[in-house]
Amino acid sequence: GSGVFLIVLRNLSYPPSTPRLRHGRRHQFNPTNVNYRANIWALKSEGCTHVLATSACGGLQEHTHPGDIVLVDQFIDQTRHRIETFYDGQPGHPDGVFHIPMAEPFCEHTRAIVNSVCKGLGMHIHPKGTVLTIEGPRFSSRAESRLWHAWGCDVINMSTVPEVVLAKEAGLCYALIAMVTDYDSWREDQEHVSVEKVLKTFKENAHKAELIIREVIPKLAQKDWTEILRQK
Ligand SMILES: CSC[C@H]1O[C@H](OP(=O)(O)O)[C@H](O)[C@@H]1O
Ligand SMILES: Nc1ncnc2[nH]cnc12
């Protein structure tokens, strides 16, 4: 797959805990079957406070070119078969019903640090943007892709919902580095998305995410997050 990883800071200490591969070590879980709850619960149980996620995404606007990076601050959910809460009434799970506010799904403080690191590295990035998450594993039809484009979404993937939602329920600071790999299928003058296109662009640009993450982690560790985490 796209070689995606999550990197997390444990107990605000450095070095961070090991990267976790969202789709499993053999890329055996498709986006519907990723156990988002187990991943986030495991991080929380390990004492993690931050999640830096990367995702290979399609570009839904002219300005979100393949090769670009978007620091996503909003999502639109078009998934259909996913559990988005730990509070599901099952035995052994947290009690009650949780109507969690979702006006600000991502951690603005973590995003600000990622943004300043990108600036320092001289990288041209998009400091904010909206991701649309589809169920997959199929890509969007051209009509769907045009609709997402008309809605004004910036990028599209298959993994941010419910990952960011569960991270928020768990009180983790979650930031997403969206790596644009293709133009999805809304443009007739451009090659439509395919796995080959995604993997090729991802490989060519993965070093950017690595550079960013290497610098962001020690910066996260330097900041006092007590108050921010207390309010989560
Ligand atoms: C391999 S193309 C579709 C696949 O790529 C993205 O994965 P990730 O978010 O884990 O980087 C997208 O969400 C789809 O799961
Ligand atoms: N066009 C696209 N749609 C959904 N997920 C993607 N991941 C990378 N490109 C994508």
TrEMBL record:
Gene3D superfamilies: Nucleoside phosphorylase domain (3.40.50.1580). It comes from the Eukaryota. GO terms for molecular function: S-methyl-5-thioadenosine phosphorylase activity. Residues 27-217 form the Nucleoside phosphorylase domain. InterPro entries: MTAP (IPR010044), Nucleoside_phosphorylase_d (IPR000845), Nucleoside_phosphorylase_sf (IPR035994). Its main location: cytoplasm. Substrate binds at M158, D182, Y183, D184. The record marks S140, V195 as: Important for substrate specificity. It is an enzyme of class 2 (transferase). Belongs to the PNP/MTAP phosphorylase family. MTAP subfamily. One of its GO terms (biological process) is purine ribonucleoside salvage. One of its GO terms (cellular component) is nucleus. It is found in: Cytoplasm; Nucleus. Catalyzes the reversible phosphorylation of S-methyl-5'-thioadenosine (MTA) to adenine and 5-methylthioribose-1-phosphate. Involved in the breakdown of MTA, a major by-product of polyamine biosynthesis. Responsible for the first step in the methionine salvage pathway after MTA has been generated from S-adenosylmethionine. Has broad substrate specificity with 6-aminopurine nucleosides as preferred substrates. Pfam families: PNP_UDP_1. Phosphate binds at R22, H23, S55, A56, S159. Pathway: Amino-acid biosynthesis; L-methionine biosynthesis via salvage pathway; S-methyl-5-thio-alpha-D-ribose 1-phosphate from S-methyl-5'-thioadenosine (phosphorylase route): step 1/1. Homotrimer. It catalyses: S-methyl-5'-thioadenosine + phosphate = 5-(methylsulfanyl)-alpha-D-ribose 1-phosphate + adenine. The keyword Acetylation does not apply. This is S-methyl-5'-thioadenosine phosphorylase.
